[in-house]
Structures are given as structure tokens and as C-alpha cells.
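Worked Example 4.2. Consider the chain below.
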Amino acid sequence: MRASASLTVMLLGHVRYRHLQVRVVHLLLPMAILCYIAPYSYIIAHYYLTH
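Applying the procedure from the previous section yields the following C-alpha cells:
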């Protein structure tokens, strides 16, 4: 009984950690993409404005 309870707690903890990891990825990925694209979009906008 205690073994199955600890197993359930471990499983819940793993699921929660996984969920947190997914949320962190969903938060960081758009930011990383924006930071990666921003300079290029700025350069393109600058190019279009000056030419």
C-alpha cells in the first residue's frame, strides 16, 4: 500500500514537472523567436524606410 502510494506521488510529481517544463518552453520559445527575428525585422524595416 505504501509502495503504491509513493509511486503515485512520484508519478504525480513527474507529470507536474513535465507540465511545468512544457509551460516554460511555451513561454520561452516565443521570446527566443522574437529575440532572434527582431534584429532582422529591424534591418528589413530600416532598409525599406531608407530606400
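The chain has a mean pLDDT of 88. Helices lie at 2-50. Compare this with Example 4.1 before moving on.
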